[in-house]
Amino acid sequence: MLAATSIPGKIVKDTTVPAGANNYVSEIPPGRRLRIIDIGGQQAVDFLAFDLSNTEIRYNNANSIKLNRTIYVTKGFKLYSDVAEVLMTVVEDSVGRHDTIGGACSSQVNKLRYGIEGTCACRDNFLVALAGRGMSAKDIHANVNFFMNVPVEADGSAEIVEGLSTPGDFVELRADKPTLVVMSNCPQFYNPCSGWNPTPIRVVEWDPQ
């Protein structure tokens, strides 16, 4: 945790985000750093990014996988937009691997997978966050899942398994363009994406000095 909380610059915002019906929304100017700290370990964080000057342009998962030549996010991974511009770059990562393919949980998918109605889910958190910006379900795109572990086997099979992060692990992004970020601290109890026990995260925005 000491490494995660050592910030070599000016802290602009420092927020603890509980799991559950929540969201985190922020406008990140170029050069600012966004550090996401996994307080309890194995806690998935669903992440959307938009070009702030035109939110119809957003993070594009397929472009990012092709141009980074990997399905796993780690240090150096660039978040490309629909028009192949870099919105953000991962500049620090104490875990080594984050997910691009698992998507966001939803109450509808939870009903199909687990037979449970009305669960709290990341899609609903995104909808609430986006509504506050005059946006809607059409703006939800294939997202990054920080701290979520979805290994792909040689036969192409994939499954969400317990995460690799431990308490105090963190990932940090630099905004390369003015970027709107929207996050859901995953409330999922029914698969191991949050270690079967969703816990808070800490989000620090800071400017290098």
Explain this structure to me?
The chain is an alpha+beta fold and 209 residues long. It has one domain (10-150, 161-208). The protein is built from four helices and twelve strands; from the N terminus they run αββββαββββααββββ. The chain has helices spanning 2-5, 61-68, 107-114, 122-131, and strands spanning 9-17, 24-28, 33-38, 45-51, 72-73, 78-80, 86-93, 98-99, 144-146, 169-175, 179-185, 201-208. The strands form three sheets. It has a six-stranded antiparallel β-sheet with strand order 1-12-3-10-7-6. It is globular and about 50 Å long. The relative contact order is 0.35.
List the helices and strands and how they pair.
Layout: H1 2-5, E1 9-17, E2 24-28, E3 33-38, E4 45-51, H2 61-68, E5 72-73, E6 78-80, E7 86-93, E8 98-99, H3 107-114, H4 122-131, E9 144-146, E10 169-175, E11 179-185, E12 201-208
Antiparallel strand pairs: 1-12, 2-11, 3-10, 3-12, 4-9, 4-11, 5-8, 6-7, 7-10
What is the H/E order?
HEEEEHEEEEHHEEEE
**Cα-atom Rg, whole angstroms?**
16 Å
Approximately how much helix is present in the residues? 10-25%
Structural class assignment:
alpha+beta
Estimate the mean pLDDT confidence. Answer: 96
Biggest sheet strand line-up: 1-12-3-10-7-6
Return residue spans where pLDDT drops below 50 for at least 5 consecutive residues. Answer: none
**Count of domain modules:** 1
Oligomer: single chain
What's the tally of helices? Answer: 4
| Fraction in beta strands | 25-35%
How many DSSP-defined strands? 12
Shape by Cα distribution: globular
Mind summarizing the main beta sheet?
Answer: 6 strands, antiparallel
End-to-end separation: 22 Å
